[in-house]
Write a structure and sequence with these properties.
The protein is an all-alpha fold. About 60% of the residues lie in helices and about 0% in strands.
């Protein structure tokens, strides 16, 4: 029983510190905190959009789908030949891969992006 009490108290005491480290002053998680330092996704896109592409992938893998779409659209504005940006938009429109059966609109958006 003592171990359970210590575990519960540890979770209760540590949670505010962990949550505040990830949220901005309004309590919302900021996409600016999603880093791309460990994302190294190789593409044939222009070198000038390499870092932006890695940020887009980091946003996508962090389930920040609207922000990821904006990032990939920005890449296409700078490098219209970056086919992988279309792929990123399609995956972002697809949404959570573990979310179950997709709505018709998600399927429509995904196939329209390709």
């Amino acid at each position: 029983m003592r171990y359970l009490t210590v575990a519960v108290l540890s979770c209760v005491l540590l949670r505010p510190a962990l949550v505040s480290a990830q949220h901005d002053e309004h309590g919302a998680l900021s996409p600016d905190l999603i880093g791309s330092a460990s994302v190294k996704f190789e593409t044939s896109c222009a070198t000038a959009v390499k870092d932006d592409f890695n940020i887009g992938i980091a946003l996508l893998h962090s389930f920040w789908f609207p922000e990821a779409i904006k990032a990939f659209e920005g890449i296409l504005a700078r490098d219209p030949n970056c086919a992988m940006a279309h792929w990123g938009i399609a995956l972002s429109n697809w949404g959570n891969p573990f979310g179950g059966i997709k709505a018709a609109r998600a399927i429509e958006l995904t196939t329209a992006s390709i």
